[in-house]
Amino acid sequence: MTDHPIRIHGLNLSPPCRIVMIFCKLHNIPYELVVVDLTKGEHKSPEFLAINPYGQVPAITHGSFSLGECGAIIYYLAEAFHTDSQWFPSNPQLRAIINSSLHWHHTNTMKALTPYLFEKIVGPRFFGRPQITVEKEAEVTANLDAFLRRIDTIFESGVYIARTSSPTIADILLFSYLSQLEMENFDFGPYKSVRKWYGEIDSIPAVREVHEPLRQFIQNVS
Amino acid sequence: MTDHPIRIHGLNLSPPCRIVMIFCKLHNIPYELVVVDLTKGEHKSPEFLAINPYGQVPAITHGSFSLGECGAIIYYLAEAFHTDSQWFPSNPQLRAIINSSLHWHHTNTMKALTPYLFEKIVGPRFFGRPQITVEKEAEVTANLDAFLRRIDTIFESGVYIARTSSPTIADILLFSYLSQLEMENFDFGPYKSVRKWYGEIDSIPAVREVHEPLRQFIQNVS
């Protein structure tokens, strides 16, 4: 199966799509990006639902096989291409710990970040939603702050997000979500260890490269 | 490592803990349940955080190794004990599809079910929260209804939740969360295919056995 090309159905501006692209680049897995235009509802089209019945990006196709959910895609690619790297080691216990972090992310990173991003930035700017109220802003900011303080403590203790001694795909996942905060030039200053970690992950060439379209987009809409 | 006993740190009343216990029973993996009393905050104790820094149940210990997040635990146990069954087949593509469903669950099942359960049942009954308002009840009920209608369509088409032709651990995960609705004797009647599926999963001996303490609890507090 490794001789079939990987198609990533998604878009550069989506964090989970970026993670899959970065994973491929880090492991020299060739891929083709098949753009799914969410603004045209292409992720709910019969063609796309045949690839991913969840109607979400990213999805991959690998020969006649298709798969959704970035955490599952990473695991599948690692198995199919027999990858073994610091990003997602083949050692079963290390892989399990990183996989655990990919699950944790859904109910922690997302829970803190999504309401902040949607209510404060993306909703009003791109979806015609009303400006956020003072009360709501205080609430979403407090939740994001609590999350950032929590991960700041983790990084301060000298480990990465999955408690490993070097960065893994779980750090890249976290980074790809937090990088959306660049849309409002968010100040990581109060979270010293997060800021240092953010700079370190951002300096990985594959991460920089895949984030370039997001940064272009931010520049264009500023 | 398979000669080390598995310790499951958690409790019978927690859906993700039940899933790990059921997985072990289905694959004859011996385990010991180490009860973590959430009402005493034991999941935030230094002893527990040393096992699972996320401060959540379940966690497992396997020799000196420890791991949190039920989706990651299932994958780890399957690898460590070389399991291969209809519940989580070793075939890489089937396993990937089921793993994908375990990820999907976080932002779909949980998103629809948790607010309904907490705001309407668990909060007022067990945490001294005020009774749900009429508006809030309409909102959480509509979200749960939309989710149940969605999965009803999936089951109606003759497949299980991960689109497999026989039930998998993803169905057991979904069941273990939905079974919480038995606390209010929820009527699955309007969702005919969900109701049929629910009865089928409930008839699996390991599922019944691990759900017995929940049903006892419901009887005791009714």
UniProtKB/TrEMBL annotation, chains A, B:
InterPro entries: Glutathione-S-Trfase_C-like, Glutathione-S-Trfase_C_sf, Glutathione_S-Trfase, Glutathione_S-Trfase_N, GST_Theta, Thioredoxin-like_sf. Residues 4-85 form the GST N-terminal domain. Residues 91-222 form the GST C-terminal domain. It is found in: Cytoplasm. Its main location: cytoplasm. The keyword Cytoplasm applies. Pfam families: GST_N_3. Keywords: Cytoplasm. The keyword Cytoplasm applies. GO terms for cellular component: cytoplasm. This is Glutathione S-transferase.
